[in-house]
Amino acid sequence: MIAQLKPATGQADLYERFLTALGQSGFAGEIARDHGSRTVLGTDNSIYQRLPQAAVFPRDRDDVEIVARLAGSPEFQQIVLTPRGGGTGTNGQSLTDGLVVDLSRHMNRILEINVEERWVRVQTGVVKDQLNAALKPHGLFFAPELSTSNRATIGGMINTDASGQGSCTYGKTRDHVLDLDTVLLGGGSVYSHVIDEDTLNTAKAGSGRAAEVYRCAQGIADEKAQLIKDIFPPLNRCLTGYDLAHLREQDGRFNLNSVLCGSEGSLGFIVEARLNVLPIPKHSILVNVRYAGFMEALRDAKALMAHKPLSIETVDSKVLMLAMQDIVWHGVAEYFPADPDTPTLGINLIEFSGDELDDVERRVHEFIEHLQTDTSVVRLGHTLAVGSAAVNRVYAMRKRAVGLLGNVKGEARPQPFVEDTAVPPEKLADFIQEFRDLLDSFGLQYGMFGHVDAGVLHVRPILDMKDQAQAALIRPISDQVAALTQKHGGLLWGEHGKGLRSQYVPGYFGELYPSLQALKAAFDPHNQLNPGKIATPATRPEAKLTLVDEVQLRGDLDRTIDERVWQHYESAVHCNGNGACYNYDPNDAMCPSWKATRNRIHSPKGRASLIREWLRLQGEQNIDVLAASVRARSASFFTGLVSKVRNSLGRRRGEQDFSHEVYEAMAGCLACKSCAGQCPIKVNVPDFRSRFLELYHTRYLRPLKDYLIGSLEFTIPYMARFPKLYNAIMAAKPVRYLLEHVAGMVDSPLLSLMDFRAACARWNVAIATPERLARLSDAQRQRTVIVVQDAFTRYFETHLAADWLELISRLGYQVYLAPFAPNGKPLQVQGFMAAFEKAAAYNSQSLRTLQAYGIPLVGLDPAMTLVYRQEYSKTLGEQAPTVLLPQEWLVDAQLPEREASGQVFRFLPHCTEKTNEPGSVGLWQKAYSRLGLKLDVLPSGCCGMSGTYGHETRNVQTSAIIYQQSWQPLVAKHGEDGGLVADGYSCRSQVKRQDGKVVLHPLQVLLAHLRGSNTQ
Q: In angstroms, rounded to a whole number, what is the distance separating the alpha carbons of residues 335 and 333?
């Protein structure tokens, strides 16, 4: 493997001059030179890592023209530029050691929807699911389907000519592209669409680059027509990238879009697109067929295709096993019943859809009759997912396959480098058998999933890329798979583009490869746009295609990290770049800081990338971060204080330290833990964030806010003895000013004035002690509950804590309070790890003493309660106490059964709860149902508060943006009738802070109904 060299000084100077000139040319977007941004943009979902010189983020088409015009000038014709969209490619398409031109941060608007003519016009940074969400009210959708549809941009889809599920019915992206607006080097442009011969002749006239492009493309289409027909295989996926076969439409008209679609940014900057859209099928039924072996699933595909379904998707046992351990399985387990005698080792998902339900049901009925009578393969059984909601849940599992494969246990992980081969579907089973034999010959395991109806299967060999011997297998395996696909009349790149596998292009195109070179030269004569991929320009004979093992691999850098350190931070370093955290959907909890900032350093992938690089750099400087962590946990406040002051002053003076860039990314994290639950790799940012902050502050002073937040649980019980005085002091203008401008905190909550002791006395609630619990009989213990207090609901929302005691008591249970002790979550979030471990140990010992009496411990706030089963378990292992969420206890309590009242409440669950314990959300619904109430769970993102995040001065604006993206519209729509409930303390606080509205906790509704009153 060839190590990536740092750019020569002359090259760095050239890019610096270019960026300076760009800033002076009216460029309105951002320019990022920092090492952090470059590091994050140096990876995608591939095995590669290339550090760009810088990145630019154009605000509009004019900015792109400025970049292209400047790059095309004689002074800067050595500048290399690569467009970038979602950055989810598996072949390094958007990776470069030149300049990244990111078209996703700002150029992501849907410009026009024409419902009558069924087309849309969009900027190319629009995400596919974003587009379909806008089209759904009109009954339309953009058809090409991808597993990465919630983060893949339209520009990325066009540039890879993307397709996936349903391609046999709906075709590829190019089949839906009507017009493209492409900015060419030098600042000119071409607006391409299907044109007749007269228009083509006009387009060819003139001396500009666009005219040269049309002359070249028309000459190839007409002069090489027979050769194109002979070479291009008749596959559904055809040939992504410079698709010569479709330059001429069937009616003879000319379409330049066929070469632009799949060009991977190597021909120009596609800035806008007009796309055709289709009516959403009104009815869908998914038949889920189970097999005892994966090869049976593949061999069955041909017979299944005879019924002409919309699509046939397949998944192997490895993906299934991983899915069963993932958050996604909660919603689909019913469709894949387990049989301990004959385990399912392969599945096919066969979709039927249409506008007439009777017709869809008839086709499904005929299909099931086939399953029952055909004996060509052994099937274990089937289930039906009926309706779009059910179908989408199953497909959500299939879509996560890419990420799930990256979460196998151990250091060896499935690697994407030969994973989108396409062969004629009738040859797929034989091809895969030989493919498996090939991998078996290397002694490798692998995971598989894909689209059997299109003959495309994603095969990922499992390799430890930190092992040089295993990394060296990339080239020989790639060579043999390329030969194997040709042998079976297929393609090496059936779906995910060529990228850094372009070395095989000449072999596939044969005599047509010079035509590709001519096209490249017409668009990009100086080889500046994404060079080394797909084709080299005929004008630059010295230019070469990049070899698959010529670019630095992520593993090359990862193996330089000490193995002990690697394992300690495995949550970060195993991130494979699948980009699930780039989910555009504001009503999805995944990474609110990314959604609000659109800055990729503020995403789990970004933060994981920064930690990997930080660990590598620490190793280069011979710093043992594990030893430093041990020292940090035994150090006092005064340890190294002088050097901390000196270093902090140096930072203010602008002294460079990559740790500062990592700190900025970590400080922007809400610690909501949605990544830990939703990321298929289980990248847990709050976990490694805390450890980073601990180490960072051994060198640099902490802000005052850290101490205020970390000590809150310890000081507030004393403050609560004088609540009116405390509130008066905190409300005073001078104090608020000092808190905001000196301590870095705003809108600090005020103490409740409710007499909690009186509420306890009313319901005969006492402090739990071993002596009291020991006096209880076994029968009494069955009707006893110990409530574990948290600082927020106990002291700031005391009325809610009192309502909880009353609800439990009204259900006929004796309530005891566990003695209040700091939970430690604020300490853990801020990186006070030694103090957190001490608090956790003390609290655990106390709670386990109470738990030993066989009485359930129940918390109230989900964020605080889940700390016991997450951070405590990680710190203390089996010594962590078991503390239930309220709804977990309620569903086993003896709630009275009542008839349905017709009352409907709408639930906004806490994001940590719904992503880390997804099953617990439905338990609230069960509790409501028993009382005759209905609880609808609203799709929602993060409220933006997340504990104390929204109270930190630096985060106020971002917190408000996060709230506006998801919760504010939902509160405006559902918050007026009193039927909106939320179980997170910080969530309810944010609603009150941002909108001045009071939202009830779900248990308060239950209590009101037990009292016999009506809350609406």
A: 5
- For tokens 């900057």, the residue is 269
The CATH T-level fold of domain 283-407 is: Alpha-Beta Plaits (3.30.70)
Q: What Cα–Cα distance (Å) separates residue 503 from each residue in 200, 244, 532, 548?
A: 33, 19, 9, 7
Angle between helices 685-696 and 604-620 (to 10 degrees): 40
pLDDT tens digit string along 734-746?
999 999 999 999 9
One-letter amino acid at 827 equals: L
Which stretch of 160-169, 582-591, 765-774 has the lowest confidence by average pLDDT?
A: 160-169
The third-level CATH classification (topology) of the domain covering 557-702 is: Fumarate Reductase Iron-sulfur Protein; Chain B, domain 2 (1.10.1060)
pTM above 0.70, yes or no: yes
Tokens of 236: 């559904």
- Percent of the chain whose predicted confidence (pLDDT) is above 70: 98
Q: Taking the mean position of all CA atoms in its chain, how far away is CA 301?
A: 31
Six token digits for residue 688 = 């490694």
CATH fold for the domain made of 411-492: Alpha-Beta Plaits (3.30.70)
CATH 3.30.465.10 fits 110-279, yes or no: yes
* 9-104: CATH architecture: 2-Layer Sandwich (3.30)
Stretch 505-522: mean pLDDT, rounded?
Answer: 94
pLDDT, averaged across the chain: 92
> At 129, phi and psi to the nearest 5?
-65, -30
Write out the two tokens for 881. 């106490």
What confidence tens digit (pLDDT) does each residue in 151-193 have? 999 999 999 998 877 777 888 899 999 999 999 999 899 999 9
Helical ranges in 524-621 per DSSP H: 554-558, 563-568, 570-573, 592-597, 604-620
Q: Say how far apart CA 509 and CA 197 lie, in whole Å.
A: 27
